[in-house]
Amino acid sequence: MIRINDPADCCGCTACASICNHNAITMEPDALGFSYPKVDESKCTDCGLCEKVCAFNEHYDKSLNLPKPDAYAARHKEMDEIMKSRSGAVFVAISDYILEQGGIVYGAGYKDHFRVAHKRATTKEERDEFRGSKYVQSDLTGVFRQVKQDLKNGLTVLFSGTPCQTSGLNRYVGKTLRENLVLIDIVCHGVPGPYIWRDYLAYLEKKQGDTITMVNFRDKERFGWAAHKETFTFGGDIK
Ligand SMILES: Cc1cc2nc3c(=O)[nH]c(=O)nc-3n(C[C@H](O)[C@H](O)[C@H](O)COP(=O)(O)OP(=O)(O)OC[C@H]3O[C@@H](n4cnc5c(N)ncnc54)[C@H](O)[C@@H]3O)c2cc1C
Ligand code: SF4
Ligand code: SF4
Asked: 124 near 97, Cβ under 8 Å?
């Protein structure tokens, strides 16, 4: 069974929890809100599947990796789309295509009070929530199983996330279902802890004496491409 001795050996992708047929693994937050697997040994049959699926395991199957990847540089044709996305809106161009073909798109959006979590979209309106970088580890609870079910139902699925999330999903889905799965991994230097974000929002609301109604981790339209400034709307006012 999976054992995390060093936190650096786990990205919280949920592949191990998703693959366990005995539901022996739950994802539990640490002090900063990062998710780690916790095994209920009374349910575990020691089948070893959770270790095999983990991208941090030495037996991780790399056979789907391209030996020599092709590289292209691209951006969306419409400047309006580029301004609404974090970078060149390639995610929007590809996800538009998938949705127009009747496919499903998964990406990082918000649940509850701006808690960053992966969600499922079947329309461009739902997909638009995934635009823009959210600099927080995204909650993937239940998402990998949902992706697999969509693939088993014959749907084409686009999943966008960090490279460690896409590698976990790739392995969890397996070779046969992989044919209808499009993976987009963003350029990523790492994700901050969810509780830092949660506590920062609480701090700002207390200071302001008002509730946050909108967040933007990087507002290109107001601060340009280079600035790394969050903007918040409190009951209608941008701060
Ligand atoms: C945690 C993080 C670290 C980053 N580090 C770097 C870096 O080191 N260097 C660099 O050049 N760029 C970095 N970026 C920026 C990132 O590569 C761009 O946001 C991305 O390229 C935007 O492309 P786009 O305009 O096509 O996407 P958009 O249309 O803006 O869509 C945003 C995409 O990012 C995904 N996404 C957003 N937040 C998260 C999240 N928390 N977890 C998983 N997926 C998420 C969405 O699902 C969507 O696919 C980082 C972004 C994030 C979220
Ligand atoms: S499969 Fe993912 S969540 Fe499970 S131990 Fe490996 S990296 Fe962590
Ligand atoms: S070894 Fe098998 S039964 Fe035990 S936690 Fe891992 S996947 Fe579940």
From this structure: no
In this structure, which ligand is nearest to the CA of 114?
1
What is each CA distance from 134 to 53, 112, 137, 219, in whole angstroms? 26, 15, 8, 12
Q: SS3 for 55?
A: coil
Verify whether ligand 3 is closer than 6 Å to residue 25 (CB atom).
yes
* Residue 86 in contact with ligand 1 by CB distance below 6 A: yes
229/23: higher pLDDT: 23
DSSP per-residue string spanning 130-196: G-S---SPPB-TTHHHHHHHHHHTT--EEEEE-HHHHHHHHHHHHHHHHTTEEEEE---S----HHH
Residues with CB under 6 A from ligand 2: 2, 4, 10-16, 37, 53-56, 168
What is the band of 224 on the pLDDT scale with cuts at 50, 70, 90? Answer: confident
Q: Are 170 and 164 in contact (CB under 8 A)?
A: no
Choose the residue to mutate in 28, 38, 39 for probing ligand 3, maximizing ligand atoms within 8 Å of C-beta.
39
pLDDT attached to residue 237 = 64
Record the pTM.
0.95
Q: Where are the domains of the chain?
A: 79-185, 196-238
**150: phi then psi, degrees, rounded to nearest 5:** -60, -40
pLDDT tens, 77-121? 999 999 999 999 999 999 999 999 999 999 999 999 999 999 999
**Residue holding tokens 């974090």?**
86
The alpha carbon dihedral of 71, 59, 173, 187 has a sign of negative
